């Protein structure tokens, strides 16, 4: 039976979390909301509607949610052609593919945003499939994106590891029954990732790659 290495993308493989913070902050500012950036940072990784509810509160007018989401999408879209992959991201995916893992992306991004992220990673030859926000009814921290990734890979939860950078990732992976690995490249503290379910935590993809043989993604797992 095969094995699946499931990866979040923003903050895990591509260095975009602080771009999201800045563009969400500007979208909120344009709409008249005074929001502190640290509050937005803690919500990065959630789907747009969930992020807005987390930052502004649940009782939001649907038209306002749509307008804020569109403003963020437009602002963030200006960076699509220069999104930076995190150090070692492509090499990590290729190494895992070489070691026999099915590499699947599980991300809240979809459409042109997902295409831009994949261009940044530049490792399509190592990616088996992608579970995007377009494919599931509920986003992280619900387990749906991870469960869909497992379906695409054709493996059970006990044969999979999920790598992410936020507490939402760790909670989604834990709820899906997979082992979870955290990375610090999204800016979330180690203690928070561990409390949310991370079995091991690494600085970034390059650190995970260098530590692969001692990690939950070891070749003999």
From TrEMBL:
Keyword presence, Hydrolase: yes
One of the Pfam families matching this protein, by short name: HAD_2
Coiled-coil portions: none
Highest taxon above the source species: Bacteria
UniProt-listed GO biological process terms: DNA repair
GO cellular component assignments: cytosol
Annotated keywords: Hydrolase
One Gene Ontology molecular-function label: phosphoglycolate phosphatase activity
SUPFAM superfamilies linked to this entry: HAD-like
Protein name (record): HAD family hydrolase
Species in which this protein is naturally found: Streptomyces spongiae
């Amino acid at each position: 039976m095969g094995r699946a290495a499931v990866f979040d993308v923003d903050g895990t493989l591509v260095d975009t979390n602080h771009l999201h913070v800045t563009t969400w902050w500007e979208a909120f500012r344009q709409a008249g909301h005074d929001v502190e950036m640290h509050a937005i940072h803690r919500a990065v990784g959630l789907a747009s509607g969930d992020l807005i509810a987390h930052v502004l509160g649940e009782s939001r007018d649907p038209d306002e949610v749509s307008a804020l989401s569109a403003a963020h999408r437009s602002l963030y879209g200006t960076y699509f052609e220069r999104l930076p992959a995190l150090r070692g991201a492509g090499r990590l995916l290729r190494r895992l593919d070489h070691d026999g893992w099915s590499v699947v992306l599980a991300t809240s991004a979809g459409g042109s945003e997902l295409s831009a992220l994949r261009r940044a990673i530049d490792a399509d030859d190592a990616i088996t499939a992608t579970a995007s926000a377009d494919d599931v009814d509920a986003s992280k921290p619900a387990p749906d994106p991870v469960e869909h990734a497992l379906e695409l890979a054709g493996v059970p939860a006990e044969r999979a590891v999920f790598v992410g950078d936020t507490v939402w990732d760790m909670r989604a992976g834990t709820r899906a029954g997979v082992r979870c690995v955290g990375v610090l490249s999204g800016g979330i503290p180690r203690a928070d990732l561990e409390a949310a379910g991370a079995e091991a935590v690494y600085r970034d993809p390059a650190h995970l790659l260098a530590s692969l043989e001692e990690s939950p993604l070891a070749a003999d797992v």
